[in-house]
Amino acid sequence: MEIPFVDLRSQYLSIKSEIDDAIQQVIDQTAFIKGKFVDEFEAQFARAYGVKYCIGVANGTDAIFIVLKCLGIGPGDEVITVANSWISTSEAVSQTGATPVFVDIEPDYFTIDPALIEEKITPRTRAVLPVHLYGQAAQIDVIRALCEKRRLYLVEDCAQAHFASLEGKRVGTFGITGTFSFYPGKNLGAYGDAGAIITDSDDLAEKVRMFANHGQRKKHEHLMEGVNSRLDGLQAAILSAKLRHIGEWTERRQSNALQYDRELHRVKTVVSPGVRNSATHVYHLYVIRHRQRDALQKFLLSRGIHTAVHYPTPLPLLPAYQHLAYSASQIPVATEWQRQILSLPMYPELTTEQISYVAASIEEFDNHQ
Ligand SMILES: *Cc1c(COP(=O)(O)O)cnc(C)c1O
Question: Distance, CA 58 to ligand 1 centroid (Å)?
């Protein structure tokens, strides 16, 4: 049996006529940049989140960069973020001229450890940027309280957590703004690069909209210099079509995770991903821990099962951050877990047979040790 890590084609085939239709309409109306389809998607996404504004941008990295920039964050400032994430998170901080300050993760949930944030706050700190990693909320209620107490902006990186929630409240709505990626492999994925920003702040929404479109308030009225970071019509129309299915796809991810949990329970060397109390995990990734991760990954590949590691190196230990001079001892949990984590195939279209085959193969590996 061959099990790919993600399978975007089978999802396309399941809604082919809706997608083909959406694409054809954009072409028929030549609404390629901004225009009707972008407006529609922004309104739908804002409504789905119960927020005042959604502003589409070119990708999820830009979404973070643009909100930080529009919050006035720049050279000399510090933004506290997490050691285990995709580089976009910290890269966006550096793009503004500010410095990312990395914090270790909670052992059970892979997200930023709120207990370690306060000691990193300095007079230069302007914002906290937690990541709802793998599809699970960080301890965002606690982080929000801390940000309020210390008067820091809370910016949520929701690139992996579309429609995830904590105590019934969606992530992305706890702080001043939430940023999203619609990279094709994300839970809600476009057919190219795409991203969005949500907020209830009139002021931030207005700035973001201008900054992302060359600083224009209206055409040729440039109040400042900005960037060119726009959601395009084709991606917006595709996202609108897919948004109608996201609830059902998320449920399937969750039932797939339950099956993995159940079947891996009998494999004592596997640690299944923990779910935080009153969190709704949307399983962008299903990440287990295993002490012989590399050997397990190789074995699974020999059985046709494709897995991945998110991420092989904690951000502060990457060559890109050598100048910040972090050591592994400053982020002990992230460092240790990075050697053990393994992302198993996870997408709505996985079948129960495929999941059983993955679980049985892991058990087989274990029996051979
Ligand atoms: C995917 C991702 C982003 C942004 O991704 P783009 O590829 O720029 O859309 C940001 N943060 C995290 C944690 C991500 O996984």
Answer: 12
- pLDDT at residue 34 above 90? no
Secondary-structure percent of the chain, ordered helix, strand, coil, rounded to 5: 45, 15, 40
Query: Any residues with Cβ below 6 Å from ligand 1, and which?
Result: 59-61, 85-86, 88-89, 131, 157, 159-160, 181, 183, 193, 195
Interval 144-190: pLDDT, tens: 999 999 999 999 999 999 999 999 999 999 999 999 999 999 999 99
Give residue-wise pLDDT tens across range 269-311: 999 999 999 999 999 999 999 999 999 999 999 999 999 999 9
For ligand 1, what atom is nearest to the CA of residue 131? 13
60, 289, 296, 317 from 342: Cα distances, Å: 24, 6, 9, 19
- In ligand 1, the atom with minimum distance to the C-alpha of 284 is 15
Å from CA of 149 to ligand 1 middle: 29
Rounded distance, CA 65 to CA 57, Å?
11
Residue 340's Cβ-side half-sphere holds a number of Cα atoms within 13 Å equal to 17
**CB neighbours of residue 60 within 10 Å:** 27
pLDDT-based confidence at residue 227 (cuts at 50, 70, 90) = very high
DSSP state, residue 106: P
| pTM for the whole structure | 0.97
